[in-house]
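[Solved] Which block belongs to which protein?

Original post:
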Amino acid sequence: MQDNKYYYDEQIKNYFYEKHIQSFNKSKEDLKDTSLSTLLALLTKQGLTDIAKRLDIKGYSKLGKDPLIALVAENINNDLTSLLEDLSYKELVLLKDLSKEEYNKYTFNIEELTAIGGLSSLGLLYKISIKDRLYLVVPENIKEAVLKLSKGRKYMSDLKERSKGLNYIDGLMTHYGMLLGGDLYQLIISPDKKEFKKEDLDFYINYIFRSYEAFTEVNSLVHPYLFSPEDIFEELRVRQTIPYDYDNSEYYIALGEDFKSSWGKEVAELKKVLLRNKLKKDNADLLITELIFYIKNDLGTQSIIDLLNERGLNFEDEKEAKELIDALANVYNNTAMWTLKGLTPKELSERRTTVVKKDKEPGRNDQCPCGSGKKYKKCCGK
């Protein structure tokens, strides 16, 4: 059974990567220019239509591809200032950094998935595949406006403050993986949440819907690195008694600003083990990030081993192998998992222990208080 699960996990992961790579638009040869019209011409008609919908452009539905390219380009150019001013701090900083080069070689980074997806949906950034090499490209005719806006110190300072609410949302999505759209909406309109400003409601909503995918079956939003929404949702259904914690704002904002802010001593120890095996610091950080998200997705042990092998790590020495296994186990036990509704395996174990020690024990056919959704006799009451 375990082998089947590992194979299934691997299939899910491979499907994600295939889908992700296919989102890059193919060009048979190097582009003669990187103008907006040239980049738009690489998109499929569906891709152009998606941008038109996101930008709320009227009269696009009956157009052929060439007139549609012209219409989308015209709208982006005419509304460029307002489009840029609606970006989050992270999105604008990323766009500014990418505007310094004509072609930016793409390196997979989970932390940039929401920003890249959001910018692409607005027609401000393009994912291009040239001769099997992947690039991120900013249209030449919008770079000047991006660099000019990002040079304004006061504007960037105000935007950073304004984006705290978005960091809150990013932190929640990173922690839980899947959230009901209605819950997020109620959160951002709550008068008790000082991180959200009433006048910025459209700013928050536009960001949410361009950054996160919809899992329409249950009106939820999912993290872009969540491999199988159906499986996660099934796991959440059996933990309905575990409440979401939306109040830990400092933690969520920090997590949304910088994923590494959540790394504790367990991750630090794993990093030491990886660095001792001559993995470069930046590569170690990227690998650890992906390992943690494998755990969040509840992928099997074999998938984790395969990832380490892909990165060229070889732990043939018995002592080194034990160090790695122990370090990985500690990270696993202290990682907030999407299948556990944001709890870590360690917290779930402590929760069950606490339940068993209560003076009044639940009836054997009652729902188990640990939140598993199972009857007590089949869970903590065994």
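(Second protein starts here: sequence line, then its structure tokens.)
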Amino acid sequence: MTAKSHKGQSFEAALAELEQVVADMESGKLSLEDSLAAYKRGAELLQLCRGKLDSVQQQVSVLEEGALKPFAVDDDK
């Protein structure tokens, strides 16, 4: 198992890698050392995915707040 850098890794790529890590661990074919490395990588990928989801959720909230505010018309002009 090779550790890949997740700098700049897309959510979809990180999720796909996480799914593969889980499948590898569930197979029962990994050594103890490889299982530990897979667990560590899985935790990193999970943190990356959660961070990206949190960021997107915050952006959606900001957009929704801005879109749902009534448009103020200045009648003085």
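Accepted answer:
You had them paired correctly. Confirming on the second one: Residues 9 and 48 are 9 Å apart (CA to CA).
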